[in-house]
Design brief:
single chain; 195 residues; mainly alpha; 0% strand; elongated
Length: 195
């Protein structure tokens, strides 16, 4: 891997972390609607498992420093890190980007990631918050009471993940700064491929 490729991936990772934190801050008044899911998926799929893990984790840690978290942070941070790593399955980086097909895959991962996040973090609420008795009925009650948050997160991710993925994947495929070829691609060649 050459130095340019490493530097470019790190810059993309920093951009995704900034987008994740900024998006979460901008959407703060809308419970469980956030940009962290799309950031975790894009970073894992397009940058690989190490940067997927790092981008997802630093995005949630950075935004949690600004807005705070609760006693279940071990569950929320773990969920985001796992989503970032598992998202490497959404795209085999050696293959060309197929903007529409990859957007659909990322959206599917967004839905699956939302369900995974709901299951893991609400287990954490039951386990650590003291809001529910440590019984099977208490666990079920924890999941039932969180359905409105799940609904918000699912609806948000069904809009945010495909929208941001479509823009990101189009840029990744067609903008000269993202074009992954061994030869240098001029701006004119990249624009002609887009048109």
């Amino acid at each position: 891997m050459n130095k340019y490729f490493i530097k470019k991936n790190i810059l993309i990772a920093v951009g995704l972390i900034t987008f994740g934190i900024g998006g979460r801050m901008l959407l703060l008044n809308y419970p469980n609607i956030e940009t962290l899911m799309v950031v975790a998926i894009i970073s894992g799929a397009m940058l690989g498992p190490y940067l997927g893990f790092s981008v997802a984790l630093f995005s949630v840690i950075g935004s949690d420093i600004l807005i705070g978290n609760s006693e279940i942070l071990i569950y929320t941070w773990t969920a985001w890190a796992i989503i970032g790593i598992v998202s490497t399955l959404a795209k085999q980086r050696k293959h060309k980007v197929a903007v529409w097909a990859d957007t659909l895959k990322f959206t599917g991962f967004g839905i699956a990631g939302t369900l995974f996040f709901y299951i893991l973090t609400n287990f954490g609420v039951w386990h650590l918050s003291g809001m529910y008795p440590h019984t099977f009925v208490g666990l079920i009650e924890s999941y039932v009471m969180a359905v409105p948050f799940l609904r918000n997160q699912l609806l948000g991710n069904m809009v945010i993940v495909p929208s941001v993925s479509l823009v990101f994947l189009t840029a990744w495929k067609y903008l000269p700064v993202f074009v992954h070829q061994t030869k240098t691609v001029s701006s004119k060649e990249a624009v002609s491929k887009f048109i």
